[in-house]
Predict the 3D structure of the following.
Amino acid sequence: MMHPIRSAMRWSLLLLTIMPMFCRASDPHAIDEKVQALLTQMSLEEKVGQLTQYSATWKADGTAPITEEMRDAIEHGLVGAMLNVLGTRDTRQYQELALHARLKIPLLFGLDVIHGYKTTFPIPLAEAASWDLDGIERSARIAATEAAASGIQWTFAPMVDIARDPRWGRVMEGAGEDTLLASRIAYARVRGFQGAGLGETDALMACAKHFAAYGAAVGGRDYNSVDMSERMLWETYLPPFKAAVDAGVATLMNSFNDLNGIPATGNRYLLREVLKGQWNFDGFVVSDWHSIAEMVNHGFAADERDAARLAMTAGNDMDMASGVYRKYLGDLVATGRVPLRLVDEAVGRILRKKFELGLFDDPYRFDDPRREQATLNDPEHGRAARKIAANSIVLLKNSPHVLPLSRSLKTIAFIGPMVKANKDNLGGWSVTVPGVDYSQFVVSQWDALRNKLGDGTRLVYARGCDFVGEDRSGFAEAVDAARQAELVIMSVGEQWTMSGEARSRSNIHLPGVQEDLIKAVQATGKPVVVLINAGRPLIFNWTADNVAAILYTWFLGSEAGNAIADVLVGDVNPSAKLPITFPRSEGQIPLYYNHFNTGRPDVPTAPDRFVSAYIDLESSPRYAFGFGLSYTTFDYSGLSLSGKIMRAGEPITLNLDVRNTGPIAGDEVVQLYSHQLAASVVRPVMELRDFRKVHLEPGQIAHIAFTVDREMLAFYNARLQRVAEPGDIELMVGSSSADIHLRTHISLEE
Ligand code: BGC
């Protein structure tokens, strides 16, 4: 270790030589100059260091002790970023080591801040159900504020993978199956995480992942191959990434899968041609965990050295966790196998972000323990989480007079394995912040409902059964509890560990004996309200057909209990709509609303049985994309168009009225779909084109205007050109993809 005074002298000498670098500047040219100046001083080894990210390993007490090997690497400037180090105390310790290095280049601290930091928001799929872009941006903003106050500068979010297969465990991390909705959400999340811009102490660098097409893994099995047409890639899977880039996303992460035979990590077309070329992305690309080395398993790289070469050549800038850049890249450059300019370019991209973040200005600017304390305990964050959680709950069924709960109910039975759980409400990919006792911090559904109902209503509890397993020994107690009550609420679902990475399921029915428990309780004749907690669409046909009411409550985060209680009693009127189709059976998967018609569609008017269908299954989904009920009702009327013919440069305005026809205030998500009847390539039966979420008091009317233009109707033709082709286009407005209230046609002219 260098003597502190000599160290200080060296620090000030360095300051003199590269002084202009040490002020934070938002001017990109000034930053470029600083980056170039720094690059000229760096050895090849130090450059490779900037391309290397390591992970710390947490201990049970929440600390991330520094190993000797790591300490040595950081002190020699051989590490560019850390993963899984959090909290101002720990990040400062690591940063101090980085500043011992010759060039004192600060470390970046990255973490999976997926749906909140200390305050946990609903899982992203649930939040997507809110269709509330402001709310989603705000939740990312709060997550960023908390994480940045805790020493983090970089989140590995948002995940913007389109997912049409609910068997895939990672559907929980994204915005569902629709490209337009997911793109808008991607934009909102990036804006939320990055706030007023890098350089603010409450902004995180966002990371759009996983580039690309990870959600289309064959069979919904995580990490599996993806084989798709380029047209499908461009039309369905790439737009959310483009939206993130348009929002200014600082980084992208590539995906584990191979895409048409080429692993995404080594996919030059995706990284250099599309992302850095056509889209002019100026941030940097990080590999997924170990994905560079895994190109050997794919059979794409001969060995790890080859994998390092392939990833760097393809345009992957930083190596997460595999260590192969550190091992081989220096030698690959020295032997002429990898051009130095590629390494320089990658290092430059990373350094630029470090400058933009202001880390050269003050490497400890994210390490203020007082700010950390104040931010992590801001009560406003909990209130925001409760609001977005309530807005993410989807009302799937409601028999008259069941929900909202009548205030005159004297006894309610509250049954099921989720009722008294607390941390389970957080769902997968939640952060464990050191020193936070989540069992105290997360309000259980039981406590929240009891607080909400007060002393006037007696709540009777029975667990009934576990999430998994065959044990029915608790059924009798549950039936007994139901018999004592006027109404039963059952909270069932998946264990939170059943969705997320490497959590694909071949069977997505309500697990264990939970549906049998529902049957036993339903047999008492009492009205049964079912809450389904899950990280994906589940299959629960019997329940859907038989119980009185169903709320899909996903995993809603720290405020799950309160949000559920708010909706149960009607303090919040549910307004969420499914961002993903719910199948009737696994055999229907993949099932999504924007499919092609085929030559033999399964429609009621079909002349015979030679249609595209299963002989043992209905073709329709259990719940359609965009579906969700409210405690009030809405009427759609007054459709009018500013014109029937769309000529070049002349958009058409579609007007309509939506009226709240029920007795209470509510929010409606008004959805606009289109269908081009004939084109040079077949078009989906319907595609979401726009939506509005409107709040309406009883009797109130919203006048809604959608602008329909050529860009909205454009698609990729067989030669991958984006075109708006002349033809007849049906426009549909509804409250879900299966509940269209108004239809009209326009004609698009050359
Ligand atoms: C996941 C990424 C995540 C990374 C770091 C990987 O296994 O695929 O989404 O960001 O780990 O935790």
Residues 112, 156, 209, 288-289, 501 surround beta-D-glucopyranose (CB under 6 Å). Residues 1-25 have pLDDT under 50 and may be disordered. Residues 385-587 form a domain with the Rossmann fold fold (CATH 3.40.50.1700). Residues 165 and 590 are 5 Å apart (CA to CA).
